[in-house]
Q: What sequence folds into this?
C-alpha cells in the first residue's frame, strides 16, 4: 500500500499510543482517517474491591488508521488489537460473580462449586454440638470483626484478622466452618489445594488466591488443613501475602489444622497473622449425650430402630475419649 515508505511494527502490549497522546498533546496529534473503517470494542475491567462496584468498561481499539504529526514528521499509523456494550458488560458481570456456588481454589484456579454451596446450606450453628460458651466465643469473634471496620480505621491498624481452629479430626471443625460460611453476610472463599507442578506455579497460585480474596473483600477466606497447604517452598511467599504487602482490608482468614505442632511458629505464634486459636477437644460426657440425643431425633421416624432414653446416658458414659466422628461410627 505504501511502496515508498518504511514500515515499523510493534507488538509490545505496553505500547499505548492513545495514553501518550493524551498525556503529551503538545508533542503528538492524532486524526482518524476517514477512509479507514474503525473497529472498537469494550473491555470489562473488574473492580479492585467488591465495595468499589461491579467494574467498568474501557474502550479498546481493535483496528483504526490515523494521520499523525509528531515533531516535524508526518506518518500514518494503523493499530490493530464488534460486541454490543450492554451485552459485554452484563456477560462479564455474570462471569465474575456467582450465585448458589462457593468459590473454591484448587490446583491454582478459582471455580464455582454448587455442591459445596448445597452442603453449606444444610449447616447451622444449632446443629453444631459444642460447649455453648466456646461456640459463642467463635461466633462473637467473626461477627464482631465485620462490624468493626471503623474501630480498626480509628486505631490506624489494618482491618484484617486470622483465626485457627485446632484439634484432632472429627470434633466439629469442618461443620463449624460450614456454619460460619452460612452465617456470614459476605462472600466465603474456600481453599482446597495449593499443589502445582513446580515452585513458580505454586507461588503464582498463592498470588491468585489472595488477589481474588482482596477483590471480594470484605470476605472470609477459608483454608482447611493449613499444615498441608503451607510448606517450606511456599511459606515465605504466603506470609508476605498474609502480612499485606498489598491491601488486605476486610479479609478474615479462618484456617483449620489437625496438627498444630507442625505449623511453623511464623504461622502459629506471630501476632497479626492468626491471632485467635480455638481448640476443639474430644467431646465431654455432656456433649456426647447431646450428640446421642441428636441421633435419637434423627432416627425417630425409623420404625426398625429402637433408641430409648435409657440408652442416652449409657452411650455418653461408654464413649469416653471418642471424637464425634468415632461416635458416629459407633452409633
A:
Amino acid at each position: 500500500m505504501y511502496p515508498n515508505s518504511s514500515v515499523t511494527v510493534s507488538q509490545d502490549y505496553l505500547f499505548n499510543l492513545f495514553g501518550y497522546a493524551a498525556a503529551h498533546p503538545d508533542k503528538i496529534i492524532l486524526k482518524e482517517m476517514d477512509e479507514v473503517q474503525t473497529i472498537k470494542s469494550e473491555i470489562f475491567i473488574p473492580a479492585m474491591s467488591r465495595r468499589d462496584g461491579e467494574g467498568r468498561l474501557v474502550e479498546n481499539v481493535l483496528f483504526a488508521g490515523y494521520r499523525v504529526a509528531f515533531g516535524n514528521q508526518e506518518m500514518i499509523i494503523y493499530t490493530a488489537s464488534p460486541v454490543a456494550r450492554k451485552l459485554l458488560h452484563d456477560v462479564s458481570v455474570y462471569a465474575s460473580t456467582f450465585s448458589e456456588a462457593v468459590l473454591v481454589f484448587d490446583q491454582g484456579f478459582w471455580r464455582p462449586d454448587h455442591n459445596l454451596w448445597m452442603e453449606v446450606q444444610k449447616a447451622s450453628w444449632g446443629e453444631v454440638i459444642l460447649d455453648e460458651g466456646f461456640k459463642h466465643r467463635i461466633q462473637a469473634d467473626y461477627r464482631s470483626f465485620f462490624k468493626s471496620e471503623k474501630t480498626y480505621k480509628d486505631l490506624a491498624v489494618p482491618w484484617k484478622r486470622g483465626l485457627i481452629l485446632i484439634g484432632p479430626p472429627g470434633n466439629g471443625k469442618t461443620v463449624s466452618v460450614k456454619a460460619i460460611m452460612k452465617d456470614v453476610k459476605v462472600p466465603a472463599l474456600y481453599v482446597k489445594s495449593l499443589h502445582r507442578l513446580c515452585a513458580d506455579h505454586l507461588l503464582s497460585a498463592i498470588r491468585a488466591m489472595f488477589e481474588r480474596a482482596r477483590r471480594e473483600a470484605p470476605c472470609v477466606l477459608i483454608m482447611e488443613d493449613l499444615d498441608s497447604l503451607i510448606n517450606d517452598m511456599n511459606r515465605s511467599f504466603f506470609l508476605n501475602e498474609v502480612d499485606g504487602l498489598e491491601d488486605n482490608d476486610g479479609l478474615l482468614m479462618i484456617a483449620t489444622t489437625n496438627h498444630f505442632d507442625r505449623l511453623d511458629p511464623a504461622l502459629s505464634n506471630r501476632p497479626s497473622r492468626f491471632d485467635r486459636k480455638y481448640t476443639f477437644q474430644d467431646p465431654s460426657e455432656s456433649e456426647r449425650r447431646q450428640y446421642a440425643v441428636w441421633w435419637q431425633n434423627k432416627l425417630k421416624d425409623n420404625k426398625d430402630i429402637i433408641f430409648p432414653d435409657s440408652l442416652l446416658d449409657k452411650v455418653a458414659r461408654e464413649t469416653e475419649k471418642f471424637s464425634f466422628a468415632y461416635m458416629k461410627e459407633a452409633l
